[in-house]
Amino acid sequence: MTDGQRAAEYPTGLRERKKRRTRDALLHAALDLFTTQGYEETTVDEIVDAVEVSQRTFFRYFAGKESAAFAVQEMVESRFIAELRQRPASEAPFEAMRRAVLCAWNSIGEAIEALIPVELHMRTYQMIESTPSLLAAHLRRSSELENQIALLIAEREGLDVELDPRPRVAVAAFAGVIRVTGQLWGHGRETSVDSLRTLTEAYLDQLGPALAGDWHASGPGRVPHVSDPAYGQGHNTRATPPGCGTCGMPSSAERTGGPYGA
């Protein structure tokens, strides 16, 4: 985390610190209510009553309930974009995105934990996925973010994103990994941000082999395949009966005595 980022996240002026405390309290109350009694069931009145402030104060910090629901996610996304802009021009696009997201997770844990408990952040992620209106907003936001990243990558590479599909393709693949790891983390037992970073790094490392590698070679989670020379050795497999390939179904000749039933 840079000094500038610390200054932005931990304001030093008395007035700014008070405003930050109020915003943090509103956010914590909103997310806690959303995840315990339901997003749609929670009203702004209930949120402000929990913090003992007015609706006017709530709307000074958040455009509405949706804005509060995605506040932490927006902070994470902003950190990633900032890190990506700082990556050296010599890095290839995917490597720049990979390093940017890992650098962002290196420092974002401290910022999240200063804002809300990580466990509440995980419950919020689960709540977003299970609430139709928020899931739709999440998909819309993700699409907008992918477009922003693609434009940034195209700018780095001196490309016209409307003429060259590579920035969008690379970002779509990258975003797919982030989406999968986020879902796995959100429904897993490990609640630390470090565990999310480790999971993200492991999956990003498999993206290249998954897209261009030989899937019949050994790899994580590799199980025997019928094309393997040693398939069946040491495994409880049954012999394949005569017929069509390995499915065990009799051929037309075996069923009827010949290809035309003769």
Notes on the structure:
By secondary structure, this protein is mostly helical. It has two domains: 10-64, Homeodomain-like (Arc Repressor Mutant, subunit A, Orthogonal Bundle); 70-209, Tetracycline Repressor, domain 2. The chain has helices spanning 3-9, 14-37, 44-51, 55-61, 65-69, 71-86, 93-115, 118-130, 132-157, 166-186, 193-205, 207-212, 252-256. It is globular. The N and C termini lie far apart (79 Å). The model is unreliable at 3-8 and 235-262 (pLDDT under 50).
N-end to C-end Cα span: 79 Å
Q: What is the class of the largest domain in the CATH system?
A: Mainly Alpha
Report the CATH superfamily of the largest domain.
Tetracycline Repressor, domain 2
Q: For the report, how would you describe the main beta sheet? A: none
Structural class estimated from helices and strands: mainly alpha
